[in-house]
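Lecture notes, continued. The same structure-token format from the folding unit now serves as the input rather than the output. Read the line below as a description of shape only.
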């Protein structure tokens, strides 16, 4: 019988995403207050910088400045 726990599923997902070309980061290095932090607090669910970059990449015709920093 195979027992699935959080660690098993997480490791499998990270391996799969890495094989697809995603960069895998270590959580504590990206926590709020760290050099690689992308949010001010763990309550910030949306990573606004990544969202803005994705919109620019997907819709290059959108004028620069349309995606405000607010």
């Amino acid at each position: 019988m195979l027992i699935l726990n959080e660690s098993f599923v997480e490791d499998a997902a990270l391996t799969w995403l890495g094989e697809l070309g995603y960069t895998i980061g270590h959580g504590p290095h990206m926590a709020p207050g760290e050099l690689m932090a992308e949010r001010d607090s763990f309550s910030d669910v949306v990573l606004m910088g990544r969202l803005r970059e994705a919109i620019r990449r997907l819709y290059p015709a959108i004028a620069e400045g349309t995606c405000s920093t607010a």
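Point for the exam: The chain is about 35% helix and 0% strand.
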